[in-house]
Specification:
Radius of gyration: 23 Å
Order of helices and strands: HHHHHHHHHHHHHH
Distance between the termini: 19 Å
């Protein structure tokens, strides 16, 4: 179980996805990706300056230390525990595998929801089955002992209020209520300073800032041009570029939420959705190119982010210093 620091701020990722059309590589014919004014801060907040090898090494070391602490804690609770480091790896997708700005890629995968390079690789070479090093020991315990073991390991089972909070996104992690794992992760990673009271106001303001993205000056005109293009291409009723992606995602969710009598998704319906996904994604790609969507959204976003940075520079600089000191 990894000990990576988590954050509840996800809206900058929405902005980044909008700018790049959910791409990890520059669009064809474009120069290198530019980092937006707020994006530069978030890279420093969460270690984005580390390359993949450094992130992997950091992940493995944190996991090793966490597992050792968990083992010591469980021993104090009267249980055996073998540190689990076999799953301490992170998989990164290369630009060659994920290239939704390429017409050839989009013609094959659409948005990469119904099928994708990773799903195809999984079918060709299923991952090796993981074996819990503590499985035999837990199986040797009585039912009541197993319940005590898991409570010592991860804390009591979530209450109904906790489950409701997880559903609506208001749940807040409390390491003191999450057993040996919570204590170990807290010791290894520590508290995320950006989630503390000092910067809560700033984080809330950033969230509100991105929630208002669709109303930024100039954004409505960009989306309207894209929407008109999509209507002309035979896909009316899409007011914003994100609606195209969501139309496929929502249908895919419905298919998986309503499986057949054997618990399997209707393959014919899935195949049909895959074909529609490619059709919509190709039209979306063409309309983004035809309306200069990406450059225009980037221009609006950079301008608005710069204004936010200028208005909150002292707070952002303080948050960056706290994040870098805490790593």
């Amino acid at each position: 179980m990894p000990a990576k620091r988590r954050t509840t701020i996800t809206v900058p990722l929405v902005a980044a996805c909008l700018l790049a059309a959910c791409s990890s590589s520059p669009a064809e014919g474009r120069a290198e990706e530019r980092t937006s004014p707020l994006g530069a801060y978030f890279e420093s907040f969460y270690g984005g300056e580390l390359d993949e090898a450094a992130q992997q090494a950091e992940y493995e070391e944190q996991n090793r230390r966490t597992e050792e602490l968990v083992a010591a804690c469980m021993s104090e609770q009267g249980f055996e525990y073998q540190p689990n480091t076999a799953s301490s790896s992170v998989t990164y997708s290369s630009d060659d595998e994920w290239d939704p700005e390429s017409r050839e890629w989009v013609a094959q995968y659409g948005y990469g929801m119904v099928t994708s390079p990773s799903s195809e690789q999984a079918e060709e070479a299923p991952p090796e089955e993981w074996t819990d090093p503590n499985g035999d020991y837990v199986a040797s315990l009585s039912e009541s002992e197993q319940a005590a073991y898991y409570e010592a390991l991860s804390g009591p089972a979530p209450s109904e209020d906790d489950m409701a909070a997880m559903e609506d996104g208001s749940y807040e992690w409390d390491w003191t209520k999450n057993g040996c794992y919570g204590a170990a992760q807290h010791e290894v990673v520590g508290d995320d300073p950006l989630q503390g009271e000092e910067f809560r106001g700033l984080m809330d303001e950033i969230g509100t800032f991105y929630e208002g993205m669709t109303s930024w000056p100039g954004m409505a005109e960009v989306e309207a041009a894209w929407s008109d293009c999509m209507s002309a291409a035979g896909h009316p009723g899409l007011a914003a570029q994100g609606d195209a992606v969501n139309s496929v995602s929502e249908e895919l969710n419905r298919l998986y939420e309503s499986p057949g009598p054997e618990g399997e998704v209707d393959q014919a319906a899935l195949d049909a959705l895959g074909e529609r996904e490619v059709e919509v994604a190709l039209a979306d790609l063409d309309c983004r190119e035809e309306t200069d969507y990406r450059d225009r959204v980037e221009e609006v976003t950079f301008e608005q982010e710069q204004r936010f940075v200028d208005d909150h520079r002292a707070e952002l600089d303080a948050a960056r210093a706290a994040a870098e000191q805490g790593r």
